[in-house]
Structure formats: C-alpha cells, structure tokens
C-alpha cells in the first residue's frame, strides 16, 4: 500500500465529494455541464476531478456516439463515481475528451467555503475597488 494523499482544492460555491466516504473530488468552478445522463440518472461533466483512480480503457457506444472511456473510482473507498472520456469518435463530441463524468447518485454535493486568505489579501492591498455595473434600465443589460 503506501500513504494515501488526498488533495483538497476547496471551492467557493459548492464542492463535490464521494457519496460513500466523503473524499473530496471537485468543486463547482470545474463544472462544465450539468446536463449529462449516467447509468444511475443525472450526471455532471467536470473539467477536473481529484482523488480518483481510473480503470482500464473500454469502448462504449452511447447515445452521443462511440467513445473510449475509463471508469472513475474513488481513491479512498474504490466506489464507482462515473467515467472519463479518453477519446470521442465523433468530431462534435471531442470537447468531452479528458473530462470526467460524475454521476449525481454516487456523489454528494456540499456548500463551499469562502477562502479567508483571498479576503485578507484584498484588505491588505487596500487599492482594490469594486465597480458595480451601471444599468440604465431594468432589462439587465449594462449601459455603454
Ligand atoms: Zn469514497
């Protein structure tokens, strides 16, 4: 075995953890699309996921075409969490390559934690001004 290193990249809005053992997986900043389907129902496409291991490659035909994928497992408890796209045969599906699907039924979503270091930095620098957008009416468009 050896020592298990768990990476925690935090997350300002929401974080995603293993549904079994709550090992940190990713955060909502890495969320590419919330509209995917897995074998257990709704699934999300993530740019990056941490603390996972990958099974052998296999070819699967999905509703969006033929793909080469690897199942993604939790590094701590080895539960299946989803899969990673290694290769998409369809040109229109190439954007999914190297990205990870997490099945919502297999993970937990938790509130994120604001980074206190970022706030301190802003206070110390003292020169950061926050401009609120100026709206000329209520249609939500910024005045130019
Ligand atoms: Zn786990």
Automatic annotation (TrEMBL):
InterPro entries for the chain: Multihaem_cyt_sf, Yippee, Yippee/Mis18/Cereblon, Yippee_fam
Keyword annotations from UniProtKB, A to Z: Metal-binding, Zinc
Signal peptide annotation: none
Molecular-function GO terms, alphabetical: metal ion binding
Annotated ranges, domain Yippee: 14-111
Top-level taxon in the UniProt lineage: Eukaryota
Family under the similarity heading: Belongs to the yippee family.
Protein name: Protein yippee-like
The organism of origin for this protein: Diploscapter pachys
């Amino acid at each position: 075995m050896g020592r298990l290193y768990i990476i925690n990249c935090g997350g300002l809005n929401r974080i995603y953890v293993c549904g079994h053992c709550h090992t940190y997986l990713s955060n909502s900043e890495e969320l590419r699309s919330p509209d995917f389907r897995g074998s257990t129902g709704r699934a999300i496409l993530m740019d990056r996921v941490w603390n996972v291991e990958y099974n052998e490659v296999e070819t699967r035909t999905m509703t969006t075409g033929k793909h080469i994928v690897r199942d993604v497992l939790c590094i701590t408890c080895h539960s299946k969490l989803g899969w990673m796209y290694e290769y998409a045969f369809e040109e229109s599906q190439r954007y999914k390559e190297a990205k990870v699907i997490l099945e919502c039924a297999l993970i937990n979503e938790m509130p994120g934690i604001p980074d206190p270091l970022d706030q301190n930095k802003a206070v110390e620098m003292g020169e950061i001004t926050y401009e609120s957008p100026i709206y000329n009416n209520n249609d939500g468009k910024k005045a130019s």
